[in-house]
Write a structure and sequence with these properties.
Number of strands: 0
Oligomer: single chain
Radius of gyration: 16 Å
Shape: globular
């Protein structure tokens, strides 16, 4: 069995168990003291699920901001440096920053998600899937990570699993145009089911 097949099977299993069955129950441990960040995320996710299209983008941006808070200035610096390198296309540097981030803050879902994006761009699909598994285990409501998972699975020809990931992401962010387009594009895979 190839490493990619092994990683895909593990990721699919984790996706099914973690995301499908625990979506509303778990949120990431940001490392911040108290439950303020968790309560804020819970409130924002609830608002997003009920938002009008005009408000949804603002709420989604607030969620992204909350998810980017590691609780540590040093880890936030690694996140900023990794994002800057990724934006510049310096994938090796981005991977280095995100690897340091996941090593030092393993409970920070955004570090895992961005390392997955970096590794997918490097063509390291198995490691990217494994990183998405970590991100979604820590924060199953991370709709951007779900979209990334769907994109990666679609690229690998796993359209049914990709469609499920897109559908889960659209439950969380029902007005994101990229998520909706991807979900609709693969609607035929699930018999045209549209949420």
């Amino acid at each position: 069995m190839s490493r990619l097949t092994y990683d895909l099977k593990n990721t699919v299993a984790a996706f099914a168990v973690t995301v499908m069955f625990s979506l509303p129950a778990i949120s990431q441990d940001t490392g911040l003291t108290g439950n303020g960040a968790e309560n804020r995320l819970d409130t924002l996710y609830t608002e997003l699920s009920q938002a009008e299209p005009a408000e949804a983008a603002r709420i989604a941006a607030d969620i992204a901001l909350e998810l980017s808070k590691s609780g540590s200035p040093a880890m936030d610096l690694l996140l900023r440096r990794g994002r800057a390198a990724l934006d510049l296309g310096d994938l090796a540097a981005a991977d280095g920053h995100f690897t340091a981030l996941t090593d030092h803050a393993p409970g920070f879902s955004e570090g895992w998600h961005l390392r997955a994006v970096t590794r997918a761009r490097m063509g390291l699909l198995g490691p990217a899937l494994a990183d998405l598994e970590h991100a979604l285990t820590l924060e199953p409501r991370h709709f951007t990570a779900l979209f990334s998972l769907g994109s990666l699975l679609e690229e690998m020809g796993q359209d049914e699993l990709a469609s499920r990931a897109y559908m889960e992401a659209s439950k969380l962010h029902p007005h994101d145009p990229d998520i909706l387009a991807a979900r609709d594009r693969l609607g035929h895979v699930t018999g045209g089911t549209r949420l």
